[in-house]
């Protein structure tokens, strides 16, 4: 609001006022005394009517704020990146940014992991705005090493404790680092921020690229009816039969049918070479088949009840049954089994050998996880932290001795163990997934793992390790996702459920293509299937 005397001066006839052109009042020569009128313009402005010496202890302010607008700067900033509203708390926690007064308060309905790429864009956009409009000094832009290691750099310092709308004239300084011949409206710091390389985010399709019908597949948590061989052949147990599906030719063949023997298939598992398939049955038998010849090699007994899980270690086949026993069978020997392992108090439903073949992990309906060495008959480690059945077991191919286990409906957690410590210590990490954990599998190419779930969400989740951030959540099955297998190239997984469907998902990158295209952001498609994917 103008001063009353200043308003009166505006309405009065124009008077000639001679201003002092010399900053030193003692050296002024041609001056005419004039009445001092308060000026709405700041004293150091070239348009000031009077001159008053500045006070060193107090800064002066004008009575109105006239911003300097540059449409090109704003338009360029807004067109650089894709912007979507984000939750204030999400941005503040994930990007170490302080929300601006104009931040949107709309809460995001997507998972934080799905907004990783958008959050990075939003962070870059916020930094440029603060640099260009507010003149703040931002930190260094994120590097490829920071992105690949899963870390997020703190790109900004502490937010300035000042009022952004203070009516104070901005102090402009000469930027000696900027290129005088640059055509960009942005400063050198903002240009460096935009030109810095950033590792592209991998996109995981939320839709299966192939769906196969699996009529008669059982909805039983304790069975393992799906496995993918190194020869690119998928084995599926359907009722009393085992079917083989070739991923290269999409041809389906029936291997066996146990209907005549009043028996049914309860588990399947391929030998590492992919030439022989082990089949567990409801009556407790374990059959070994030569797939190329489509001939049964031998049948091994021992279990009194169904064989729900099988695991190969070179020529040794381990089987776990409802009778709480684990048998080691050397298929080269004539004996039905070479070792008998006891310890579980209920059905053995999870069984996996470590990649080096030195340790065997077993999970049971007694909520226990046991670790056995390759020659002993007593567990060397016992983990009892789960509060529900443990079927999901997986060894990390990237770190020796790292074991992951998942609990059932009452547990819903994934736990990680260090089996090299020699003692049954507490888990390294515990992740609550919110649903029954049915299967776990590590990626062969990158340090990630996938989990399938049952009650109550029936989802498939891809995790980054060790941060355990969710990279993707895949849905589509209408019943528990009880079965999981991974392709030999480590890129594709197939899931099976009681809804009688098999769904194929491309979730992991190929290690060679991922490394070679990390700067271009293009991950090549897999070559497992000779024909384009179809839905049938």
Secondary structure layout plus pairing:
Layout: H1 4-11, H2 71-80, H3 88-95, H4 116-133, H5 144-148, H6 188-195, E1 210-213, E2 226-228, E3 233-238, E4 241-246, E5 252-257, E6 265-270, E7 276-281, E8 286-290, E9 295-300, E10 307-313, E11 316-321, E12 325-330, E13 339-342, E14 348-353, E15 359-364, E16 369-373, E17 381-383, E18 390-395, E19 402-407, E20 413-418, E21 429-432, E22 437-442, E23 448-453, E24 460-464, E25 469-474, E26 481-486, E27 492-497, E28 501-506, H7 511-516
Antiparallel strand pairs: 1-28, 2-3, 3-4, 4-5, 6-7, 7-8, 8-9, 10-11, 11-12, 12-13, 14-15, 15-16, 16-17, 18-19, 19-20, 20-21, 22-23, 23-24, 24-25, 26-27, 27-28
Helix pairs in contact: 2-4, 4-6
- The count of DSSP E runs of length 2 or more, i.e. the number of strands, is 28
> How many DSSP H or I helices?
7
Question: Mean pLDDT across all residues, rounded?
Answer: 77
Quaternary structure of the protein: single chain
Which bin fits the share of residues in helices?
10-25%
What is the general shape?
Answer: elongated
| Portion in strands | 25-35%
Distance from N terminus to C terminus (CA atoms, Å) equals 75 Å
Structure description:
The protein is an alpha+beta fold and 536 residues long. It has helices at 4-11, 71-80, 88-95, 116-133, 144-148, 188-195, 511-516; strands at 210-213, 226-228, 233-238, 241-246, 252-257, 265-270, 276-281, 286-290, 295-300, 307-313, 316-321, 325-330, 339-342, 348-353, 359-364, 369-373, 381-383, 390-395, 402-407, 413-418, 429-432, 437-442, 448-453, 460-464, 469-474, 481-486, 492-497, 501-506. It has a four-stranded antiparallel sheet, with no helix packed on it. Strands 2-3-4-5 form a four-stranded antiparallel sheet, with no helix packed on it. Strand 11 and strand 12 (325-330) form a beta hairpin. The longest helix is centred in the N-terminal third of the chain and has 18 residues, at 116-133. The radius of gyration is 35 Å and the shape is elongated. Residues 14-56, 71-114, 141-164 and 517-536 have low confidence and may be disordered.
